[in-house]
Design brief:
Distance between the termini: 14 Å
Strand order of the largest sheet: 1-3-2
Mean pLDDT: 89
Structural class: mainly alpha
Radius of gyration: 21 Å
CATH topology of one domain: Arc Repressor Mutant, subunit A
Low-confidence stretches: 176-181
CATH architecture of one domain: Orthogonal Bundle
Largest sheet: 3 strands, antiparallel
CATH superfamily of one domain: Winged helix-like DNA-binding domain superfamily/Winged helix DNA-binding domain
CATH class of one domain: Mainly Alpha
Length: 181
């Protein structure tokens, strides 16, 4: 038996659509609206933690990408902008800001004289190590209200949705994958 939940903002929107367009199946608006609302609310909570370190989300993202790349915490700009899904122009602008803060340095690429590498400075490494610890603690707090089994089920369902969205053909999932357990 499903547990009762309190109506949310998405329920109100769905009710309005049902009233105004009863002929239209607006059921996809439920999960998509909730995912979008969750994303916005999550971003606010994540940004609060980044702000404690005078970091924006994108600054955290760049520094974290360099940090998790492993020692010497150095990547080619093309690797960075493809990983972070931004344009090369955006990445160049962002690198300038991070370099001015003293968190990264650009150095010549020993394998290609025409390009450079982006590397965390000792200050950048110390900052991202502190920030990522606070970030993970914040994520634990955000998800704490969910039971472990519910969280695992949510993660599994979101992985299915992500796979469907990332599919180059936009194919639907096989019935066995998409059915609730």
């Amino acid at each position: 038996m499903a547990t009762q939940r309190q109506p949310d903002a998405v329920d109100a929107i769905l009710a309005q659509w049902h009233r105004e367009r009863p002929d239209l199946d607006v059921s996809p608006m439920g999960p998509i609206g909730r995912i979008k609302r969750c994303a916005a609310l999550l971003q606010r909570r994540l940004d609060e933690t980044f702000a404690e370190f005078d970091l924006s989300y994108w600054e955290f993202d760049v520094l974290a990408t360099l940090r998790r790349s492993g020692a010497p915490h150095c990547l080619a700009p093309t690797t960075l902008f493809s990983t972070l899904m931004v344009t090369s122009g955006t990445m160049t602008h962002r690198m300038g800001k991070l370099e001015a803060q003293g968190w990264i340095t650009r150095r010549p690429n020993p394998d290609d004289a025409r390009s450079s590498l982006v590397q965390l400075t000792p200050e950048g490494l110390a900052l991202i190590d502190r920030a990522v610890e606070a970030h993970v603690a914040n994520e634990h707090r955000i998800l704490a209200p969910l039971k472990a089994a519910d969280l695992a089920a949510l993660d599994a369902r979101l992985a299915l949705l992500l796979a469907a969205l990332e599919s180059p053909t936009g194919q639907q999932l096989p019935p066995a994958m998409g059915t609730a357990q």
